[in-house]
Amino acid sequence: MKILFIVNPISGGVDKEPFLKEATSICDFYGINFKIFKTTGKNDEQEVLKVLENYNPDKVASVGGDGTTLFTAIALLNTNYPMGIIPLGSANGMATELFVKLDPIEALKDIIMSHMVAGLDMLLINDEHYTMHIGDVGINANIVEAYEKDPNRGMATYAKYFIEELKDLKPFKVTLNANGESITTNVFMSAICNARKYGTGVPLNVVGNPMDEKFEIVLIEQIDLPSLIKAGLSSFDEKYFDNQKSKVIATKEAELIFEEPRLLQLDGEVIKKYHKVSIKMLPGAIKLITNKGNKNIK
């Protein structure tokens, strides 16, 4: 067996070296051939494609957080390489959604041992960007933008921008075209969901399943501020939905249109402002190494 580890050394501020040292020992002990590719932020896309072509692994392990998972998945599009996830980021939302063991070594053992591969969906945004988890326009995208510009990290920094955003909280008009119908309403956030929860544990979509060949658009029309504050600063259960007013539309293709350009974030990365956002489902685009503990598989 040959395993390629795709590692983001700085994701989430988590030191990957202790894991890599133990993973190396495990692979050496069991005679598993392996190679480690570390992202640098320079030509990573081109370089990892070269490694894949030259090394031709049997399995690929994504080592990092949600951003690393997305990077690895994009690299593996239109290939037959199966991907497993080793959660080592600040937010491991996608790993949680896919019932990956949160202990990195246990996750590695599952990747090595499992022969179960299932299709994981991806979404194509405006024919140029991809998301596997959650994207949005509105309050959360604005918070993410401010947070990314701050050299400080952690919950205290996030809380600062969260509170600042609440001071100017105003709804905006959006038109959703999906399933042959059109909805125009005022919202605080329009979310694009291929899953149920943000990495922080905040739920948006109780019916989401990243392996069911459809996604959900969640239009949040009304927000209960006390529950929002609780939601933004801690992980909690799905009772949060009892205090919100929202529309959830399941579809395979959709279009969001705004009166003025609005900021879009995808999987925690700020993209840019758009007047129109189109979303297309790419069913089963990624071959996910998983097991029968994955409750998304029906």
UniProtKB/TrEMBL annotation:
GO function terms (MF aspect): kinase activity
Source superkingdom: Bacteria
Membrane listed as a keyword: no
Enzyme's top EC category: transferase
Signal peptide positions on this chain: none
E.C. number: 2.7.1.-
InterPro entries for the chain: ATP-NAD_kinase_N, Diacylglycerol_kinase_cat_dom, Lipid_Phosphate_FormReg, NAD/diacylglycerol_kinase_sf, YegS/DAGK_C
Gene3D superfamilies: 2.60.200.40, Probable inorganic polyphosphate/atp-NAD kinase, domain 1
Domain DAGKc: 1-129
Keyword terms: ATP-binding, Kinase, Nucleotide-binding, Transferase
Protein name according to UniProt: Diacylglycerol/lipid kinase family protein
UniProt source species: Lutibacter holmesii
Native organism taxonomy: Bacteria, Pseudomonadati, Bacteroidota, Flavobacteriia, Flavobacteriales
